[in-house]
Model the fold of this input.
Amino acid sequence: MANNEQRRYERFRTASAVWARPLDGPGDFQLLESVNISACGLLFDLDHPLELDKRLDIRFELPQHPDLIEASGSVVRVEHKGGDNYYIAVDFIEVGNLNISTLMAYLEAVYKD
Done:
């Protein structure tokens, strides 16, 4: 992925709860912690790598939002941070009933000073 594609939307640092599981098979949701979020995806910590293009069923919290956000996404980057620590970057495929402009407006309202 080209660097300009990685920065399509502003990213906001956040340590929010994220639940993820493979989209294409059985499995329980695993509780994770986000590193950052944007209108097109999120970055989270994981103790093992995932395959590129792996599709995930995702749930995540947003500050001051009463409901979990349901989304699906695709792994676009895996970065080994050392030991059993990996950053997993996911591009959203679909985000519940939110469109990109609505999500971006919400993120800006909550995270911008």
Remarks:
- The CA atoms of residues 33 and 111 lie 17 Å apart.
- The radius of gyration is 13 Å.
